């Protein structure tokens, strides 16, 4: 059957589990938490042995059949945890999943998770999953759904947010559920069991400069140029300094360059130990529309911004040759922010926005 996250939670409260589950969607936080809930319930029901299969380039799909046929060594019930990041098993994978679903082994649950999903992913293998078990397609929340999600999550953490506080947080995170979850967890630590109004929330968010820097990087890498540029404008209006912002962006760009250069992206992602795990989906989407040369140019642009802000750009020798060095502080700051906007738009647009990094 095909179901929703809410229906899945109700099912997990029941007496047993289906033989097969597919949890897939482009909202990493919701996918991860739903899969974690299923794993926890399976453990409660005695599925104490767990085998993890990471589908990477060149993955041998015979391993799924071998796992289905193997006997449990330590427990009478097993969970096979199949991680399919792209949501596309390919011809061999689709056939292997169809065969598995046609005759699921007893006392075994197969959990398939995917971090990318659309109607185009569906096929004979997803139909087989629906016949044998449950398919949960996780779609991004609509803007009007976000306040209810924030309120429910806050309540689950023992936090009481006023209506104005919920509206303010929904506006600040702009659809980024991971950012909202992080802020709620922080508020729960600071104000557990208390009522939090908009003024309290505003003060809490304003005191955490890193929160906005992280949001900026994630929005740009996720390809949301409008939101990323909106965050840049907000940071500039609040008087943030450029150099600390560049530090975090440089770190993320270097990771992207290493990933784009790696022969096996899945193995490289594990090596980078990106935290939290939900951010892996953000990096995967960026890599789909980019290549090594693009991230090299982004790094060059970041270096140029650093030179502008620190007064080491190409104008320095020109004024030195003239024998005068006017106060260029205001000019450098304005130019630095302008170049940061170009960099952020290029990161968000990847190869489609390569012209933004061309020197005038």
Automatic annotation (TrEMBL):
GO molecular function, one term: DNA-directed DNA polymerase activity
Keywords from the named record: DNA replication, DNA-directed DNA polymerase, Nucleotidyltransferase, Transferase
Annotated DNA polymerase III delta N-terminal domain residues: 21-135
One GO BP annotation of this record: DNA-templated DNA replication
Gene Ontology CC: DNA polymerase III complex
Reactions the enzyme catalyzes: DNA(n) + a 2'-deoxyribonucleoside 5'-triphosphate = DNA(n+1) + diphosphate
The keyword Cell wall biogenesis/degradation belongs to this UniProt entry's keyword annotation: no
UniProt cross-references to Pfam families, sorted A to Z: DNA_pol3_delta
Keyword Amino-acid biosynthesis: no
EC number: 2.7.7.7
Domain of life: Bacteria
Matching Gene3D superfamilies: 1.10.8.60, 1.20.272.10, P-loop containing nucleotide triphosphate hydrolases
Family recorded in the similarity comment: Belongs to the DNA polymerase HolA subunit family.
Name the UniProt record assigns to this protein: DNA polymerase III subunit delta
């Amino acid at each position: 059957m095909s179901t929703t996250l809410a229906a899945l939670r109700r099912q997990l409260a029941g007496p047993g589990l289906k033989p097969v589950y597919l949890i897939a969607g482009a909202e990493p936080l919701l996918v991860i938490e739903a899969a974690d809930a299923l794993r926890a319930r399976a453990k409660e029901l005695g599925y104490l042995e767990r085998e993890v299969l990471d589908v990477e380039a060149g993955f041998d799909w015979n391993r799924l059949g071998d796992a289905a046929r193997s006997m449990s060594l330590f427990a009478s019930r097993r969970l096979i945890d199949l991680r399919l990041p792209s949501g596309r098993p390919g011809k061999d994978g689709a056939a292997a999943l169809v065969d598995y679903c046609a005759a699921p082994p007893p006392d075994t649950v197969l959990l398939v998770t995917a971090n990318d999903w659309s109607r185009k992913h569906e096929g004979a293998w997803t139909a087989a999953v629906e016949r044998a078990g449950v398919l949960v397609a996780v779609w991004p929340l609509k803007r009007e759904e976000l306040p209810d999600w924030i309120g429910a999550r806050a309540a689950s953490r023992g936090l009481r947010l006023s209506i104005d506080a919920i509206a303010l947080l929904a506006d600040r995170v702009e659809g980024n559920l991971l950012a909202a979850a992080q802020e709620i967890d922080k508020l729960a630590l600071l104000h557990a069991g208390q009522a939090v109004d908009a003024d309290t929330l505003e003060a809490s968010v304003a005191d955490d400069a890193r929160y906005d820097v992280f949001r900026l990087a994630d929005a740009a890498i996720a390809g949301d140029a409008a939101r990323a540029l909106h965050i840049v404008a907000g940071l500039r209006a609040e008087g943030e300094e450029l150099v600390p912002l560049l530090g975090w962006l440089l770190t993320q760009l270097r990771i992207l360059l290493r990933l784009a250069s790696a022969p096996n992206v899945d193995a490289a992602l594990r090596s980078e130990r990106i935290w939290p795990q939900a951010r892996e989906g953000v990096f995967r989407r960026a890599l789909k529309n980019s290549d090594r040369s693009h991230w090299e140019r982004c790094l060059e642009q970041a270096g140029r911004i650093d030179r502008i802000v620190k007064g080491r750009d190409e104008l320095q020798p020109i004024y030195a040759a003239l024998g005068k060095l006017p106060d260029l502080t205001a000019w450098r700051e304005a130019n630095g922010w302008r170049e940061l906007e170009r960099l952020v738009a290029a990161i968000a647009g990847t190869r489609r926005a390569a012209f933004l990094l061309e020197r005038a």
